[in-house]
Amino acid sequence: MNFSKEEYGKGEDKMEFKEELKNYQTIINQELEKYVRKEDCYEKKVNDAMAYSLMAGGKRLRAILVMDTYRLFKEDYEKSFPFAIALEMIHNASLIHDDLPEVDNDDFRHGKPTNHKEFGHATALLAGDELLNYSYIAMSTELLKTVKAEESREELENKIMAFDEFSHAVDRMIIGEYLDTELEGQMISLDLLKYIHKNKTGALLKLGVKMGAILAGAPKEDIERLSSYAEKIGLAFQIKDDILSEEGDEKEMGKPVGNDKERNKCTYVSFYGLEKAKKELDTLIEEALKDLEPYGEKANFLRGLTLYIQTRSK
Amino acid sequence: MNFSKEEYGKGEDKMEFKEELKNYQTIINQELEKYVRKEDCYEKKVNDAMAYSLMAGGKRLRAILVMDTYRLFKEDYEKSFPFAIALEMIHNASLIHDDLPEVDNDDFRHGKPTNHKEFGHATALLAGDELLNYSYIAMSTELLKTVKAEESREELENKIMAFDEFSHAVDRMIIGEYLDTELEGQMISLDLLKYIHKNKTGALLKLGVKMGAILAGAPKEDIERLSSYAEKIGLAFQIKDDILSEEGDEKEMGKPVGNDKERNKCTYVSFYGLEKAKKELDTLIEEALKDLEPYGEKANFLRGLTLYIQTRSK
Lengths: 314, 314
Known about the structure:
Chain A has helices at residues 11-33, 44-54, 61-71, 81-99, 115-119, 121-148, 153-182, 190-200, 202-215, 220-247, 250-253, 259-262, 268-272, 274-292, 300-311, and strands at 108-109, 112-113. Chain A is mostly helical.
């Protein structure tokens, strides 16, 4: 079966995609659960704060990108789990800090009070630090296991490369968050807006795809092609976010809509207008799907995910 | 020359120690300088904020512990630099977050305004995140270099072990900071106070010594003995801090003294009283020096450092 855009995301295929998405989410939640500390001791509150955000039921998009990109090249995708989990941890760490009063000052996330609203400012700060650091615990534990088990040099090298991609991408993510905060309310150019999102949202999405390919030992040209794919869906994801923020349903979004506008934030919608933003989104999705062509049926899930980014309602 | 406690820390030896301490600090500052980003661009302010804290001229005690412990076993101690630097980064990251209004709400550090006083709350938060993450960039860069250079499996394993020790120690440091914040103003037991400091201050000091020994490929019994040494100086360091906070000179300390008392904080001095706290400090230093005996002259600098912890005036 050779997928075209028109066929995919409809009927049976759509069902299949949704089921696979759910499967992935279940696996990821199970894996994350293993890292949640439950000791009832002095440390309980900060552990609870970490678990609160980590298990709040996000889309797990970044972790899924690691796992499914890995499967383009190799079957044993459980080997990518620790890195997928690490990425989900750092993503949630960044959400906790982004929501803090001194940054975005948000009260709700995934339809629940934000971490600092639930646990207090200091605990949320430190729970964010903990989750950031926990992503590295997940990777150092995995690297230590690999070197002690005397796995092949290549396997070890791929994992170290993934770790190095990770630390550099997190730097970009934080810089993006910094710029977004620092320049809030200012009139900025479209290029700068793109630069901010390339870092803030794009860096971790690209990291997901890149780590998946690197861990599976993919050839360099595939890593490059898939990185380019990831950049496109990263930008598409942000444009869609802005569109949803403009016209979304508050209950579905889990946070107040029109937020960005109220805060006089530059968005793709404020630059392009709603209609042109939607066209830009469609073009990016089209081009992203082209990047997946060389992978045939193996990329079916990624195709579904790409279309999901375009059509999601929250 | 076989050192006794009475001889060391006096006259010529003391001069030698001070000179060596300064040498170490110069090396560390030079190494850290390499990581400071200077691009004059949108990211300038957050980079400046990172550099402001990183280059504020702390004692560099943790990094020195990595480097000098390494030298107990091997000569080529420049191999330990990336890990020593990483430790100094994470230490400074923790200071930035500790000083924030929601945690300790401190206005001064090393005699200068704290990071958030100088750069604002959001930038200080994100500069702290950046520095935390930067410590992992330093390590991932080093690991990648090692695996690409096809260094020995043993070398690689030691570095991965150091990375794993690092991530776990940082977890303990953050938990210590959390407990210190959460329990502030409450009456706690001496055991709990010790537990807090074992994590908050002790974890990174112990990490310094452990990483030095691990990176040099030291035998297990040495790693254990030196870990025990590090626990003692960690506790001694904190007791001395409390003593200085009680009776120190405000100008020398670079921050207001009597701070802890005002905030009704439990300290070793409030538990033991000043005189008994000093005795406890002396006992710990005595025992720590015993742990160094097997290393003869090679441990002279660590002896000096141990006595410095006891006698420092800031």
